[in-house]
Write a structure and sequence with these properties.
Number of strands: 0
Order of helices and strands: H
Helix content: 40-55%
Distance between the termini: 122 Å
Largest sheet: none
Structural class: mainly alpha
Number of helices: 1
Shape: rod-shaped
Radius of gyration: 53 Å
Strand content: under 5%
Length: about 140
């Protein structure tokens, strides 16, 4: 709009009296506007990522399986070592038990010497079974004493 409306000046009575002036594009048109998302391909495809992940997980499972086999071997070796030591440990315990039992018999003989009809080292249960002496449940008391 190039004219100014002033009161009392001859000219246009309304804005609607102006001629229609339409803006036009420049000769040859406007340059093309890029509106599409054209992102560059930056990385492997989903299938490639999945395949690589599956390979890595498969290798991990393989290593876990190999570790389980190795641990099973170590466990069997430890069990075999313990089984081979068992007779030695049992012999030591039997020897210790016999020493303690001998002391018990001597103490029982000494304590029950004046009791008529008492048989030293006789089973008090009268059922024909052998029982090892019971260990004390009192604190600080060693077993078989």
């Amino acid at each position: 709009m190039t004219e100014v409306l002033r009161r009392g000046v001859p000219g246009m009575k309304s804005v609607k009296d102006l001629p229609a002036v339409q803006d036009m594009p420049p000769p040859g048109g406007f340059p093309a506007v890029r509106f599409a998302r054209r992102l560059p391909n930056t990385g492997p495809s989903g299938a490639a990522v999945f395949a690589v992940s599956a390979l890595i997980m498969g290798y991990g499972f393989y290593k876990v399986g190999q570790g389980n086999i190795y641990r099973r071997h170590l466990k069997a070796e430890k069990a075999a070592a313990r089984e081979s030591l068992l007779p030695l440990l049992q012999a030591e315990e039997d020897r210790r038990f016999m020493e303690v039992q001998k002391k018990h018999v001597e103490l029982e003989t000494k304590i029950m010497a004046n009791t008529p009809g008492w048989k030293v080292n006789e089973n008090v249960y009268n059922n024909g079974k052998w029982y090892p002496p019971m260990s004390s449940t009192l604190p600080g008391m060693a077993p078989y004493i």
